[in-house]
Structure formats: C-alpha cells, structure tokens
Protein 1
Amino acid sequence: MSITIFNDTLKITLHAPDGEKGYYRGTRFDWAGVFASIEHKGCNYAQEWFDGYSPVRHDAVCGPAEEFSPIGLDEAETGEPFLKIGVGMLEKMEGEYDRFKLHNILNAGQRTLEITEDSITQGHILESEQGYAYEYFKSISITGKDSFRIGHKLVNKGSKTLKGDVYNHNFFTLGLLETGASRQLDFPFKPEGDWRAEYSEVGFTDNGIRFTRTLKRGESVFTGNLHEAGKGMTGSPNGFTLTETQTGRGVKAHCVLPMTKAVFWSYHLIACIEPYIDFCIAPGETFEFDIDYTLY
C-alpha cells in the first residue's frame, strides 16, 4: 500500500510497512518512512537507483532512508534475539554481524498509521522478553511549497537503556542523471576523511566534495569517517547541500542535532552523504529530532 501527501509543487509518496506484502522487507533499514517518490516541479528526487529489485534486498530503498545500529547484539548468543529499531527483534547469526544479510525477524512488534492532509506518521510499538521495549513514531510532513520534514520520537518503555546511533543514507537521485562533475556536495564546514582507495575521480574541497569525471556503471567511491577538519569526531554541524548543476536542481538538509561523523558513498546514479547521530535513552526517557529538507 502507498500513501501520498501533496501541495501545488511537492508530492510525496510513501510505502506502508507490511511484513507480508510491503515494498521493503529487508532487515537493514527502518521500515517507517520508506519513500516511493518525492516529486517536485516535474522531477522525481527519489527514484529506484538500483538494479534487480527484491523486497528483501538490504538496500532496496529510495530517498532519505534511515538505519539504527543493532542493540543487544553482543549479549545475545547465536540464535537469540537482538534489537534493530524500526525493524524488530532479529535472530543473531553465527559469526560477525553483517547488516547486508537478511535476518530472521523473531518479534516484529506492532505498526500504527496516522494520516493528515499534510503528514504521515508511522508508528512501531515493540515489547520483548529481553527488556527492550519502545514506542517509535516517524512522521513525514510537508512544511512548505518546496520543503518537508522527517520527525522522530522514540520513547524507551523497557527496562534497558537504548544506546547506539542512527544515520540517514539520503538516496537522492535528482532525476537519475549520472554522477559526475555536475554533482556537487557542500557542507557548512571544511570536510576531511580517509578515502577507501586513492581515487582520482573524487576529492574534498574547502567546503565539500567534487567529482572530476562521470562514474562508470558498477563503479563506486567511499569514505567512512568524514568529519569537520581539525575537530575529529566531536560533533559537527549536521547539514548539506546536494546540487545537480546540469539542471540546477538540488536538496538542502539541516538537523539541529550535531552529527558524530558522516559516511560518503557514491554510485554512478547517486552521491549519498550519511550523517550519524548518537543516542542514549534511559528507561522512561524520550529521544526526539527532526531533519528538514528543502528542494530547489
């Protein structure tokens, strides 16, 4: 099932979570707020960027897609449950944890849905015998003719602390143009980090990332510890601007909470910045934050 909200210039369609027929049934990303499309003035900013769709493929998600780190993984034995917020209690596999693998869902919790004229709120309520329990509400709301907000509210209803991090993968396609010199990413700080290889096709500038050529199909670039130069992992301003200069289209994002670090991954159709936010929620406490997006 899909759900749509819109105004005169912006139309957002989401997939509803469904463990049997849902568009996304993988165990990596949060099932709430899975985008089907973000249409703005004749352009889709959140198309399918991948080949070989499967509902259980780990990254079969579009637009802003969020993943919470596993909780309780170290204390669980093989075959026992651990928590993935937004997904449920998953069965621990033998060997090291691999987010790309499909895990058995032992406890899927319950889902709620509330729709207004300009917002969609998807809830996930979970209780477990392991002491983890929460009420989680994720809302997608249109805030202006060119803007929308992703709101998060996570209430710890269990006896154990919920501690980890959450990041947003930002799979924006900007019309599915190929990633190259016309795809530009800017930050409110000078970035630095360690590239996975000695790339000649991409590099840091004083305030962003630039490409020198178009990426070929199947080619990717990656850095796993992008942060503000000179500060290390101490928390940097959480925002970015992604622009496709061929069309003049782009996305501006802002979050009040600082990012702990960021990851950058690019493929021949997308250039994704992934800001991380840490959280530590004691029993009875609530964790809330918003991410604001403006399209242009």
Protein 2
Amino acid sequence: MLEVGTKAPDFEAQDQNGVVHTLSEYKGKKFILYFYPKDNTPGCTKQACSYSSNLPSFLDKGIEVVGVSKDSVASHKKFETNYDLKFTILSDPEKKIIGSYDVWKEKKNYGKVSMGVVRTTYLIDENGIIIMANDKVKAAEDATKMLEKLS
C-alpha cells in the first residue's frame, strides 16, 4: 500500500465503456480510487453497490469514485449493467495500475497462498496526493466508512 502523503502514480486505462481515463483528468478534484479483486463476486458486488448508492453523498462533498480491477472492459460493462452502477470502473488486465499502487500481494485463503489484489481504498486530493489510504477494507462497509471519515 502506498503511504499517505505520496504522489499518486499516473495511470491510463479504459473504463466499462471503453473511454480512456488518466490521473491528470482528476486534477483539481478529490477522488476515491478503490481496488477490488473481481467483478460479480459477493464482496466486490456489495462494495460496488454501496459506492453506487452512496455516490450522491460523495459528489455532494466534491468527491468522485473510481473502481479498479484486473477484469476486462466487457466484464466491467456486465458488472455495471447487472447492478446499475453509477461510477467509473477501470480495467487493468496487465496490472499496471494495480502494481503501481502496490495492491498486488500474496494472499492466503483457507490455507492456500496465491497472488491477488488486496482490497485497498485511496483518497486522492486535488493535487494528486494520497490523503487517505486503507488496506484493511471490509467490502460491505467501505463506502460508509469513507463517508464517516470525510464528515
């Protein structure tokens, strides 16, 4: 996980509609950049739906929400459609963003060790500096916990 106070690494990736997004387009805005393991899985779905339903509260605070996983653009589009998600979801199949934000780690699940995305949430300020970072994310509570911290 990157430390608070660190300059957010630049990125370029397609969203669920094939539109390319970069870090520089968020200059002058605060935004949440959250990383999750996989589309259409129970925890990731709860997290995404919570961000989507709470999006008006984030936008009222001037904060945009961007999700990232290694799933394809097509998978993201299906995820968005299945759950009526209202925010940008970036596709990072080569794990360039995932690697630069230090969220690709060894994970243990039922005693099995594998590499994967560690659920992590960053809040990035108007100047591209990480001002909050959390790698102890509980999927279903992430959006509401972020809103509480922002109040």
